[in-house]
Design brief:
The chain is mainly α. It has one domain: Multidrug-efflux Transporter Regulator, Chain: A, Domain 2 (Orthogonal Bundle), CATH 1.10.1660.10. It has three helices and two strands, in the order E-H-H-E-H. A two-stranded antiparallel ribbon has the order 1-2. Helix 1 crosses helix 2. The protein is globular, with a radius of gyration of 12 Å.
């Protein structure tokens, strides 16, 4: 049975989409990709459902423009 992660780091999201980590950070800072940080942690965390919603908006968004 395959195991799927529910929470991804920015680096993992970048690898999944084929983008650089810096591009993912630009989308996060622009408010186009929801992400959060746990208190006391530096790394952004992105839920798989937020990443799927982001990908579904590609039809109306010009990628990779930020």
């Amino acid at each position: 049975m395959p195991v799927y992660k529910v929470i991804l780091t920015a680096t993992e999201a970048a690898a999944a989409l084929g983008y650089s980590t810096q591009t993912i950070y630009k989308y996060i800072h622009a408010g186009k990709l929801p992400a959060y940080r746990e208190p006391g942690h530096r790394a952004y965390q992105i839920t798989c459902s937020d990443l799927q919603d982001f990908v579904s908006t590609w039809k109306t968004m010009k990628i990779p423009a930020v």
